[in-house]
Design goal:
45% helix, Rossmann fold, globular, alpha/beta
């Protein structure tokens, strides 16, 4: 089961890579839309959207599909959700894969955008007033600026952005979860993990600096760390062959 990033994105951006289809040759691979996103129902007035809700939704999906235990992969915010799920339901997890995951304490996530892409950050700042006033075009431009800073290779960036019109982003979900996540610190939970864990990060990830992955790896007993040297935030897209080999071998117990 794969928990995508965000919070607030649906799972559609994952389809920019064929690695999920390749992994599905040997096992079922489940991609899903989180609460309030994509093909899942929109949030109703007054409906909560918290970390606890996201954990419960993921577990309900697992139960609905009839899986007693799952291999769980989380990307970006989905990595944080995967860690939280594993802490809450360790008996349900067979293996854990964390891909460019947010830090176990949400606000400790290391962003490098302003140091490496100051011009992009400046363009985002110029959009903030219009975006706050509800300007949809400004919001879309802000997201595009953000996405453009996630890559190691310009050609991968351009290919990803060319398909960006199909990605769905829900600001309401993002704001609801960001308001909730600051209450939690998963660091003490990582030392309790006893199932195989693989921690992955792109060397040039500006959204989650590799130091976060290194700290997660050091905190989880017996975990493996894989750094992808020609990737930013999406190693499954920038280095798909290496990603498929690394994750495939891990899931096979090698």
């Amino acid at each position: 089961m794969v928990a995508n990033g965000g919070p607030g994105f649906d799972h559609s951006y994952l389809h920019v890579s064929e690695v999920w289809n390749a992994l599905a040759r040997d096992r079922p691979v489940v991609l899903y839309d989180q609460r309030g996103n994509g093909r899942s129902a929109a949030l109703k007035s007054g409906q909560s959207c918290t970390l606890a809700d996201q954990i419960a939704d993921l577990d309900a999906l697992r139960a609905h599909l009839g899986y007693e235990r799952i291999d769980l992969l989380g990307h970006s915010w989905g990595g944080y959700l995967a860690m939280a799920y594993a802490a809450h339901h360790p008996e349900r997890v067979e293996r854990l894969v964390l891909v460019d995951s947010a830090a176990p304490k949400w606000n400790d996530t290391l962003f490098l955008f302003k140091e490496v892409f100051p011009e992009g950050v400046e363009r985002q700042a110029a959009l903030q007033y219009a975006e706050t006033m509800g300007d949809r075009a400004a919001s879309d431009a802000d997201i595009r600026e953000y996405l453009a800073m996630l890559f190691y290779a310009p050609e991968k960036r351009d290919a990803f952005l060319a398909a960006a019109a199909g990605y769905r982003y829900n600001r309401e979900v993002n704001q609801a979860l960001n308001a909730d996540l600051g209450r939690f610190d998963l660091n003490p939970e990582l030392a309790k993990i006893r199932f195989p864990t693989l921690v992955i990060n792109g060397r040039f990830d500006m959204n989650v600096a590799p130091l976060s992955a290194f700290r997660i790896h050091r905190a989880i007993p017996g975990s493996k760390l894989a750094i992808f040297e020609k990737s930013g935030h999406l190693p499954f897209f920038e280095e798909p062959e290496a990603f498929l080999r690394t994750v495939g071998e891990f899931l096979a117990g090698r």
